[in-house]
Amino acid sequence: MADTPISAEPARSGLSPRKRRQISLGVQYAVFVAVLVAVAMLADWPKIAENFFNGPVAAGMFPTLFTVALKNTLIFTLAGYAIGFVLGLVLALMRLSSVAPYRVVALVYIEIFRGLPALIIFLLLGFGLPIAFPGFSLPGDVYGTVALALGLVAAAYMAESFRAGIQAVPKGQMEAARSLGMKPTRAMISIILPQAIRIVIPPLTNELILLFKDSSLVFTLGVTAATTELTKFGSDTTIDQANSTPLIVAGATYLLITIPLGIVVRRLEARQGRKR
Fold this sequence. Notes:
By secondary structure, this protein is mainly α.
């Protein structure tokens, strides 16, 4: 019986996965460049420059942009952050407490203030409190109201960050402290919390960025020229000048703060990742 000839294996055809990926990326880059070129050719650059990058209009915003608007924005943000930090830490400890009512109160607070838009909190404090308690006003007027509104919202998010940080500390730390005769409260303050705070620095810094942007909601309270912040100042100047340049300048001022903070957050997260 004659041997049956073995058919040769068909030669592989087509491109390698690496080559296909390179071609795919090349096509994507080409499409992206084509879109940019089309936009650049179709845009009315003189009108864009006149309405969004008007030098004289931008120059007229200084120095009030920094001496009033940015200053107030920073005051609102830092005051709200301080309230949120302290209240958030208390809520986190309540969430981890062995006392059931504490846990319930903290959980209800966190769920409510994380679920409500910050705008509603501003409106309730700005207009609800005077109605519910006639004659009552918070210390600092607008500053106090904004700081409290931002702090109440921030506390709900910071509480969860603190709770996660505390739970991330090895349980052996508390057991070792107790074995040395330290009371639970003392051990929590001296040993657990310092470690937990270091762990949650990145999310806490990110919350600072969010508060910095949320401070723009102060416009709902009817601010004056002395208590205006970046967004309100940019919006009012835009209306006065019938030009959109002030909004661009206000946005750039926000980025002047948020971009460096964002870089800090990424570096802190990378550093913690290396330690793990």
